[in-house]
User: What shape does this take?
Amino acid sequence: MALSSQWTAMPNSQPPPASLTGSLIRERRLALGLRQGDVAQAAGISASYLNLIEHNRRRVGTEVLARLASVLGTETAILSEGAGGALIDDLRAAAATTPMVQPELDRIEDFAGRFPGWAAVLAAQHHRAAQLERAVGALNDRLTHDPHLSASLHEVLSALASVRSTAAILADTDDIDPEWRTRFHRNLHQDSERLATGAEALVAYLDGPDTAVDAGLAAPQEEVETWLAARGWHMTELAQPDGADRLLEEVGGLASAAARSLGAAFLRQAEADFRLLPDAMLQAALEGGEDDPCLLAQRSGLPVLAVMRRMALLPGSQAGLVICDASGTLLFRKPVDGFALPRFGAACPLWPLFAALARPMLPLAAQVEPAGRSLRQFRTLSICEARLPQGFAGPVLREAAMLILPDEAPRAADPVLAIGSSCRICPRARCPARREPSVMADATG
Assistant: This one.
């Protein structure tokens, strides 16, 4: 199984139209977990200009598109509406979202050629629907777990309670001393101003631009993962004598002390993994068809989880990776297109990752189909490892990993496990493992 990137280049000498390109740029950036400002800075343009491009309000020239494609780790043809192959792929993906309808897939190229405008509209609607699904997930995370939002709401409710209490005293008491009445009026004025300021700040936060949302990292883990995503999820510097030191300097620039600590620990682990299984050795094994993490672990002397980390962080790898501890808390998340990973809270209990926790050192391979419009299938490889850092007298620490491999040609005979991201935004209403009602309608059954 080849894990190298499957993005293919196509010639493009003219600036692509803006109607679909901006949506594709935004979708790719969000899939990588990159902030709008960071992408704009790396591409040499302003964040406001990139925001206009992503919302299809500005045409993007060939040179700027090439720089954006480089930053996003893809080819210009994939971001260009003019790329016939990309447009046809979008139409096929749109067709897969309606399993009850059987469109004429054998005539899809004829349709795109005869009616390119309608084909572009259909593709744009497909991407728009996918963006709205992601927006629902993001808003659910913000409304449920965003600390800034919680603090803002608390401030507004606190000011409102003070206003109501003071107003009630003034309205219900006839014989208030003039001095106290003046104090109550002053408090009422101050609390009213505090209420207005808090409400304005809350509205500005909720209605702010995408950059404000993207900048709202809520956890140190997200800071580290965003840094890795900006690097394309690989660290080629580890092959250089002073590469680890230079990477450590980058980690030192993270915002919080907790993120810097997590980043440094991650680098130490990644460097140790790299020394035992360098990129060249791993790439050669994968190209030779040796893609079983357990067999690679035996050959390299690494734990299986370490091999999975190396496979996911190999330059050009399409594999996603999720790691959790015994509580089910996600410790590491490398996303893959079509397989949504929750930003906060509990993930889908049907993930093979959690089944592996109950059977340490027993590998679990499963074919899964995440809920959503794409209905793509993935091959997952999961395993749990146990550690005894304090020997027999200490606790058993378990850590499980799930490697997520896009399966472009699934076999019909393989059983497929229907899974989701998290119950709150999963549309599978008849799921036996559902914990709470979904905010989304049942679109997939």
In short: Confidence is low (pLDDT under 50) at residues 1-19, 209-217. The chain has four domains: 18-142, 147-214, 219-303, 318-445. Residues 228 and 354 are 25 Å apart (CA to CA). The radius of gyration is 26 Å.
